[in-house]
Design goal:
By secondary structure, the chain is α/β, with parallel strands linked by helices. The chain has 11 helices and 19 strands.
């Protein structure tokens, strides 16, 4: 009853588009279960399209990818204070290091295993989240050089994260990032991967690309900008959220709909019941907000309050053309006539990221190797077996 269809050709197209724009290494972020798309399938599609590596927020996500058969380089960078890095070292996970304590814990784990841990140093250049602050760079970099010389670690990269606060702030952060790179080189470390740009800067700011970019939402075909659509950026949305009609009811004028009767039918009409609700990531605050779905190629309004498991659509004008089991598209690629996820985001005064990662675990993710609009693919149109999965901004 509840499906998030994930277009693997769309993900491949988006990664290829990013490679075309940047000409350097592309790191695709698959945290939060691949932004709700399914991490394993998203990672595999991204790597097939030429991504250099994939990345997660935490170690648990990275290890799950290894267990799922992803053998390519994986980076993770957000760690609890009690994290045991031994599993990461054994699995060949690259660790983003933000402060000295993490570095020492990682080096100890690597030494204990007789292995060399691969490190990417994360520096804070103005976002004020995780990452080593400028006053920490000198001692952290010097210690990293010592540990590299001893064989405990290998520093493969250095990275930071933009605040997306405008071009002036982006350039100021880049200047600080350049200082960090120079300081790292001054202690004898030459990083292979240097990345600052996430999706927004990757798509619009070539001067911030360095030799690698780190993209999240763009890989899934969504725009990181309020004033630019996916199509305008050459991207194809990968997720189509679908359900079906499970009940149809003809009702007279004056009929109240769902809890509280916040919607009353002005004329006689037909109501369709769709088995998705706020337990599935459909925000309850969409009640009466003007959201719509696509049924039989027509835009039809959601009416009444959204329940935990179901919502109602007024299908009066098309009632004679539909029956039980009729597909319902909640959002997808607007180039194919579907509602864009940005409608929900706009009505909720939030961003598309929050909507897609909030799609619940009852919604079955089905990766499909079928051709969406505007994406060429040689593979046959087949679903790819994958376990059901439950879903910030890279």
């Amino acid at each position: 009853m509840r499906v998030a269809e994930i277009s693997l050709p769309a993900i491949r197209h988006n990664v290829a588009r990013i490679r075309e724009l940047t000409g350097g290494a592309v790191i695709v972020v698959v945290k939060a279960d691949g932004y709700g798309h399914g991490a394993r399938a998203a990672a595999a599609a991204a790597l097939e399209a030429g991504a250099t590596m994939v990345a997660t927020a935490d170690l648990e996500e990275a290890l799950a990818l290894r267990e799922a058969g992803i053998g390519a380089p994986i980076l993770c960078w957000l760690h609890g204070v009690r994290v045991d890095f031994s599993e990461a070292v054994a699995a060949g996970i690259e660790i983003g290091i933000s402060h000295a304590q993490q570095l020492e814990h990682l080096a100890a784990a690597a030494t204990g295993l007789g292995r060399t841990a691969v490190v990417q140093l994360k520096v804070d250049t103005g976002l004020s989240r995780n990452g080593a602050a400028p006053e920490e760079w000198a001692p952290l970099f010097a210690r990293a050089a010592e540990l590299e010389g001893a064989g405990a670690i290998r520093v493969r990269g250095v990275f930071s994260h933009l605040a997306n606060a405008g071009d002036v702030h982006d350039r100021a952060q880049a200047a600080r990032f350049d200082e960090a790179i120079a300081a790292l080189r001054a202690v004898g470390i030459e990083p292979e991967l240097i990345h600052l740009a996430a999706s927004a800067a990757t798509l619009t700011s070539p001067h911030l690309h360095y030799n690698a970019v780190r993209v999240g939402v763009a890989a899934y075909g969504l725009s990181p900008f309020a004033d630019k659509t996916s199509a305008q950026l050459g991207l194809v949305p990968a997720m189509t959220l679908r359900s079906e009609i499970v009940a149809l009811r003809a009702v007279p004028a004056g009929t109240g709909v769902s809890y509280g009767y916040n919607h009353v039918c002005e004329t006689a009409t037909t109501l369709a019941l769709v088995p998705m609700g706020y337990a599935d990531g459909m925000p309850r605050a969409l009640n009466g907000a003007g959201a719509w779905v696509t049924i039989a190629g027509e835009h039809r309004p959601i009416v009444g309050r959204i329940g935990m498991d179901q919502f109602i659509v007024d299908v009066g004008p098309i009632a004679g053309r539909i029956d039980l089991g009729e597909p319902v598209v909640l959002f997808g690629d607007p180039e194919r006539g579907h509602p864009p996820v940005e409608i929900w985001a706009g009505l909720m005064r939030t961003i598309n990221y929050e909507i897609i990662v909030g799609i619940g675990p009852r919604v079955r993710r089905i990766p499909v190797d079928a051709e969406p609009s505007g994406v060429a693919v040689d593979a046959p149109a087949t679903a790819v077996d994958a376990p059901a999965a439950a879903g910030d901004a890279a």
